[in-house]
Amino acid sequence: MTDIPGSKPLWDRSAAELAAGIRAKDFSATEVAQAFLARIDETNPALNALVDIRPEEALAQAAAADAAVAAGGELPPLLGVPVSTKINTSLRGYASSHGVAAWAGAVAQDDAVCVAGLRGAGATFLGRSNSPAFAVRWFTANDLHGRTLNPWHPGHTPGGSSGGAAASVAAGMTPIAQGNDIGGSVRFPAYCCGAVGLRPTVGLVSGAEPRGAEEFDSPMSFQTMAVHGPLGWTVDDVRRGLHAMVTPDLNDPVGIPARPPLGAPGPVKVSIVRDAGLAEPHPTVNAAIDDAARWLAEAGHEVEEIELPLLGEAARLWSLLLYQELRTMMSEIEQFGDDSVRVSLVSSFAAAAEIWGERPSLTEYIRGYARRGTLISRLQRLLGNDRIVLTPVCAEPPFEQDADLAGDARLSELLAAQWPMQAVPVLGFPAMSVPTGIRDGLPSGVQLIGGRFQEDLLLHVATAIEARATRSRPPFSGGQTG
To answer: What is the dihedral sign for C-alpha 422, 349, 147, 329?
Structure first.
């Protein structure tokens, strides 16, 4: 029984509903996999969100889950729940192509640590999510796999770099998707597609590749800013994805042997920051903040508006520290990347030069990292263990497709608008993108920033927003990919 008459189809159910139904034998993991594979067949040809889909392997995993249910005993928490993994993260037997044609045959021999966490939790892997080449754009297209479309409107980006993950979750192809984030790559796609996305505290989810993988001397910005995190259709989906992906691992240079708290916090102090001095929020962005503030006050949280210029300073630091290190990788990007990545990065460097000059000095770079530590301490003191900051996800609605290829002036606008995406990674704090509804035919939402290792606080507040927001699945008016 794939669907129960009068109830939601299996593909539209949460991870909790699916896991509970499989355990209770209301339906089988095989039926769940078949329902999601059918949904992929229905929606993915237009959206091109998932690539390298192998139905036989997915059904074999589901059959093994059904056998585990029949055998009885303790069952893992995500048994039979479909997930996707990103093309830049190792999944055993699949290429970690990074969207680069020359790397299409780079098949992983084992799982990345965070993927191993999902596998250990019993998840069924249904496909690989698309991203831009090298995962360095807020748009999702590459020469190897083509373009991913936003399921709400083909003329707007699904976000990047985890654009395939967000579009697939919104379309109902999987309830949970693994993504990663160094400048908004989980949070911005979730915003653009109307999903939920969580960027954990740096070090909480291991970024380590499998043992035996080719060693890569990760730049300092990658070590201090990049994280893996879950996207989902509901806040609880994201919570469950996070707990599966949290894999204490001291092989990760910033890994910690810890797991996020499981408690249910009480009322939270919510400080609203609309503008960090870089980009005035669009009216629809302000409206989303107004909605979220009202809902959180109704839920009993203490809400206030504040000025917090350190977030603007952190965003500017991001454009110094990350882009200076990306410059050192340009020979490889020039050799293997596609035209869109090269053009986008040239304009990105030009936008950063407006702040830091054409060639920032080593002294400026060193002082930038020194200033980073000061800003981390200041923000942590403000947040403590009972406060979050609510900001826009972006100062603009979801960008028009390929806006970063429209010239240096437009790229400068994008960089300014994305200050909420940039400020968080450079400081290493956790943050969530939470949808608030649809405005002018596109998703809207807000970002929640919490103190380090306070993911439970973010999930708690996000649940209050979700309970009051009007949600719907997108119309899939995407047309053709290309």
So the answer is: negative
